[in-house]
Amino acid sequence: MITELLLPAKSPTMTEGTLVAWKIKPGDQVAIGQVIAEIQTDKAVLEWESSDAGRVAVLLAEAGQQLPVNAVVGLLTTKPGEDTTAAVAEAKAKNAALAAPVAAPAPAAAPAAVPAPALLSAPTAAALSAPLPAPTAKPGKSVRASPVAAKVAAALAVDLRKVTGSGPDGRILRRDVEAAAKDGSASFASAGATAPPKPKLKLSRADGPAQADLPLSPMRSVIGKRLLESTSTIPHFTVSETIAAERLADLREQLAAADVKITVNDLLVRASALALRQHPKLNAAWLGNAIRQFDSADISVAVAIPDGLITPIVARAHTKTVRQIGDEVRALAKKAQEGRLAPAEFQGGSFTISNLGMFGIAAFTAIINPPQVAILAVAGIKDVPVVRAGAVVPGKQLTVTLSADHRAVDGADAAAFLKTLRELLEAPALLLI
Amino acid sequence: MPDFDVLVIGAGPGGYVAAIKAAQHGLKAAVVEKEALGGVCLNWGCIPTKALLKSAEVLDTLRHAKDYGLASGGEPTADFAAVMKRSRDVAEAMSKGVAFLMKKNKITVLSGTASFVSADTVAIAKSDGTTSQVSAKHIVIATGHRVRSFPHLPVDGKRVLNYRQLLATTTKPKSLVAIGAGAIGMEFGYFLSTLGTQVTVVEVMDQVLPIEDTEIAQFVQRQFTKAGVAIHTSTKVTKLDVQADQVIVHIEANGQSSTIAAEQVLVAVGFLANTEGLGLDRAGVKLDERGFIAVDENLATNIPGIWAIGDVAGKQLLAHKASHEAEACLAAITGHPQPVDYTQIPGCTYCQPQVASIGLTEKKAKERGRPYKIGKFQFVASGKAKAIGHPEGFVKLVFDAEHMQLIGAHLTGYDATELLGELALAMKLEATATELMTTVHAHPTLHEAVMEAAADALGECVHQ
């Protein structure tokens, strides 16, 4: 029997997805529940578990390809040597029908139409002897290269992350590095050890192309849509507060000296959670015809990831210790970096913190993440002169800026919240009890 | 609809592995064999000769019992017929093992002699005179080699023997001349010499084991000479004068002619592809200029659906090369080609001292015209080698000087063949001297010599 593998909808709104990587290859035996591929939806990379069993006869899509939901991406057979020629042709026809509306979604004037998903041409009777594309070493993942390939790469200034390996399971061999060096496809930006070091400040892009049109990833499109919606429909107002941060910095140093890894951000999540419990107007969602106030402080923490940003949630943050919060944030951030957050881990927070302190920013404002009604923008701790007892002395300050939805929150509410937050952060021992 | 997905002709180490690999891929497989399952390797080559060599080695050890502080009660003797019988018993047991593997993998075994009727159909002539025809989507030719006959070396099976005839004898010759100092000549030379035959080895090339590294070959030659084997290199056999009770071997070296008299002669040179009677012309399969079946790196012949592996496809006539080609061939048939890298086929000779090698010899490394580096370690400096009473031999590694990539490994000494696996893996994984040196090798083992040789190449050897 021949079973089609159909690209599943991993969320109610998903209409298309990107096949990130296959976990199976032709000839493999697949069991029900086995992870057969990774799929990128609009927000995350999810594992696709097979709901069928059988032997993989043919794969009809390549890693990296964007596909409509229900596209036939492969065929499973239950009998060895089953002829899949007819099924492949049928799958091709189905895919063409699915691709048509996706290929022409935009008005004719759209500057860069999304290319139609180009499904691999269907293998014919010769499928058995067609070679498979060699797996590619993905940037960001650990690079598998032979010892001598690594040495040759160092000598020839070849970036192993960009080299396609031809060895077993995509392992990079010497010949792959030499080929890459020859065609220049995998060189580092600066060539070789003798080249001058890369300037820290890049003043011009004279060396690069004049411009480049980068296709939108599903994540970028969603970010664009949601933030435009937020700024164009929500009456934002912002309130800033400067917090004396000597004690905060001191506490962090004390903890660091004891080898406890707590960041200012962890303390901020805890402080915000406690402050939100006192000011429930900010711990809310704008529903259009009602304002829903939450009991639990479920704090979304903005995390930068290679393709954009995502906001994993520290749920019930007011019930957790700083240490628990820190452990959780780091675990979530790691999952976010790997694209492995489950939808429940990033959907449905009640308040957001965006922290750019690690860049030493003076102050900034953030855009509300609807339906939430407020977001806190956290800058870096700065060494500043402060006036204490009539004298100018060295001090440390941290600026936070709250953006709030004026439909749900008034200026006095925002100010009161920030006052509580300041009091907690200026007496950080309170955060540890 | 063809009868089989894959039909393999010949059940040697190439053919039976091809059939099993086909079955593992879910293909319907059959194998045709006219003699015993296992081919030359199991029945007349690798395995029975290893049994003989073990007998010789044990005898040699008994003779040196005193060196180990043991008394053996007089001079040990060999029962030649019993030694030969043990060898046949081992071969038969292994052949039965292959029969079991065929059954386990549900492979149809067709007894008889195969010949092509067309590109996808083969006729099988059985011993009872009947003939049947089978067809298959893919046909893999794995018929092996046979001994080549030369007009001036007339093999008669009594005075002048090939290796197969020698394996079937039950009486030990008093004296023997082995023509050819390749693996066969050297292994039989060692075996018979140890059992008391006066052995002479004649080789036309300028060293014994002509494909091995010169330094290794010279060492083995010295050990053989010490053990009482006469060796003539750069020497041609011009004529055999076969008499009633002896053979007069006429040889010529540097323009000088002379003769050697011996009870028997072993012809250990010259091999041909087993293509005769296969009907390759009816299938349209082309041969190369040496008469072997011409194949590409995926073992495909010029006819789609017909493949050839092992000795019949030329290059090195080695069992493990045949088995490896079987895997590569099935990988290509099932759509995941893994071309064979012929620069990484190991080679072993099982006389004592044993010889094992893979990759480039020093001479070949020099001919490339790129800088190379040699690392060496003598077993005499190995605690383990001393403790087991075999301090003879050495490890010689060849590295490309630029990145110290391992490009050749040559070992000689006691059980040296068992040390080669690590080096074959190192070559496959493209390891450099650093990885070989920094891998922790258990102490005391003979393997430590490999680590020390790599360290020597880097100028960091500890024990010499």
Give an overview in words.
The complex is a heterodimer of chains A (433) and B (464). Chain A is an alpha+beta fold and 433 residues long. Chain A folds into three domains: 2-103 and 115-129, RNA polymerase II/Efflux pump adaptor protein, barrel-sandwich hybrid domain (OB fold (Dihydrolipoamide Acetyltransferase, E2P), Beta Barrel); 134-192, E3-binding domain (Dihydrolipoamide Transferase); 218-432, 2-Layer Sandwich (Chloramphenicol Acetyltransferase), CATH 3.30.559. Chain A is built from eight helices and 18 strands. Chain A has helices spanning 85-103, 147-156, 174-183, 218-233, 246-257, 264-278, 322-337, 411-426, and strands at residues 2-6, 16-22, 29-30, 35-40, 45-49, 54-59, 66-68, 72-77, 236-244, 284-286, 291-293, 299-301, 303-305, 308-310, 313-314, 351-355, 374-388, 391-405. In chain A, the strands form five sheets. Chain A has a six-stranded mixed β-sheet. In chain A, a hairpin with a 4-residue loop joins strand 10 (284-286) and strand 11. Chain B has 464 residues and is an alpha/beta fold. Chain B folds into three domains: 4-147 and 272-343, 3-Layer(bba) Sandwich (FAD/NAD(P)-binding domain), CATH 3.50.50.60; 160-268, FAD/NAD(P)-binding domain (3-Layer(bba) Sandwich); 353-457, Enolase-like, domain 1 (2-Layer Sandwich). Helix content of chain B is 31%, strand content 26%. In chain B, the strands form five sheets. In chain B, strands 1, 2, 3, 4, 5, 6 and 17 form a seven-stranded mixed β-sheet that branches. In chain B, strands 8-15-9-10-11 form a five-stranded parallel β-sheet. In chain B, helix 3 (46-63) packs antiparallel against helix 4 and helix 3 (46-63) runs parallel beside helix 6 (183-194). The model of chain B has no long low-confidence stretch (mean pLDDT 95). The chains are: A alpha+beta (433), B alpha/beta (464). The interface between A and B is medium-sized, with 21 and 21 residues.
